[in-house]
């Protein structure tokens, strides 16, 4: 499925939202989002990784949502970024476009998702974007990934108490985890008290922010965690345990 003739480009549809958020991308960056949108819709794997096909919805729900937090302190200079549960490549692919000096890896347990991210990297010539097909619980113990990331992002993946066990083992001390959440963040944090304690996260290590309509067409909360201590070696636990028996 491709955009119809005379349909506004993805970048045109993004611009009002980006302006409202105070985000200013140059022409080359915006052109890459147009390339990405066209490549996604033309790719036969896309229906396997996303149910969003309308150009306006892709611009808002995939592209703008992915880049909405780029002004946060966790995005700085040349970094190694991991996107856990990348799905259709969000926010991994947009972040690779916006931060060409950073290395971005989209990680997913579904082979189709990892393959799709690779295909987008190849089609757009994004040399800084790679993908990894792996279970999060297993990659958390892989020495090539454990405590190697400056920033780990998770979008629409799981509850905070589970995300802590997924993400923090991959973040190097001094690095960050950023969770894209919905309007129930307060409830999730209350449930995550034990997980925060186990992972050595204090109140001072956490920052919260939210973006609501009319700045976005939906409410988006962000939880930013700075990792200060090494993660206990036993975490993450075996496949399926963090989700079925969260801390």
Return the structural class: alpha/beta
Estimated radius of gyration: 17 Å
Uncertain parts: none
Q: Which term fits the overall shape?
A: globular
Mean pLDDT: 95
Look up the CATH topology. Answer: Rossmann fold
Main sheet record? 7 strands, mixed
Return the CATH architecture.
Answer: 3-Layer(aba) Sandwich
What report would you give on this structure?
This protein is of the alpha/beta class. It has a single domain, classed as Rossmann fold (3-Layer(aba) Sandwich), CATH 3.40.50.150. It has eleven helices and seven strands. The protein has a seven-stranded mixed sheet, with helices on both faces. Strand 2 (103-108), helix 6 (111-124) and strand 3 form a beta-alpha-beta unit. The mean pLDDT is 95.
Question: Which features characterize this protein?
Answer:
247 residues; Rossmann fold; single chain; alpha/beta; globular; 19% strand
Layout of secondary structure:
Blueprint: H1 10-20, H2 27-42, H3 46-49, H4 55-67, E1 80-84, H5 92-98, E2 103-108, H6 111-124, E3 129-133, H7 136-139, E4 149-155, H8 160-167, E5 171-181, H9 185-191, H10 193-198, E6 206-211, E7 220-226, H11 241-244
